[in-house]
Amino acid sequence: MGDEVQYHYDMGDGWRHRIVIESLPPHWSSAELPLPACVGGENACPPDDVGGPHGYALFLEIMGDRDHEQHEDMVRWIDGVFDPKGFDLNRLNREWRGPKKRRR
């Protein structure tokens, strides 16, 4: 397999994601396909409305400098700390699948 697609997110800001398709189910044309799962990734998702790649670079610069005049504003904006290297595979897959349906 190994096919790649490029996903453009928030067209106005210019985010592009490279997605590698590792495998498809044997009956991929079936109407009852299982949901896809992410098996790996890198880095944290930038905060919403950060201003695209250039805004994110500025955000990281400000967050990395406690003496920057906008540092405290950014911390309040994201409501806490931000780890740019953080990637939580389990959280991503849980959020992708949505809330669990309650069993009766």
User: Would you tell me the overall average pLDDT?
Assistant: 84
Strand content: 5-15%
Report strand order across the widest sheet: 1-2
**Helical fraction:** 25-40%
The computed structural class is alpha+beta
Count of extended strands: 2
Largest sheet: 2 strands, antiparallel
Secondary-structure element order, N to C: EEHHH
Please describe what this structure looks like.
The chain has 3 helices and 2 strands; from the N terminus they run ββααα. The chain is of the alpha+beta class. Strands 1-2 form a two-stranded antiparallel sheet. The longest helix is centred in the middle third of the chain and has 12 residues. It starts with a strand and ends in a 7-residue tail after the last helix. The model has no long low-confidence stretch (mean pLDDT 84).
Q: In terms of topology, how is this protein built?
A:
Elements: E1 3-9, E2 15-21, H1 52-63, H2 71-78, H3 89-97
Antiparallel strand pairs: 1-2
In brief:
With 104 residues, the chain is α+β, with helices and mostly antiparallel strands. Helix content is 28%, strand content 13%.
List keywords for this structure.
104 residues; alpha+beta; two-stranded antiparallel sheet; 3 helices
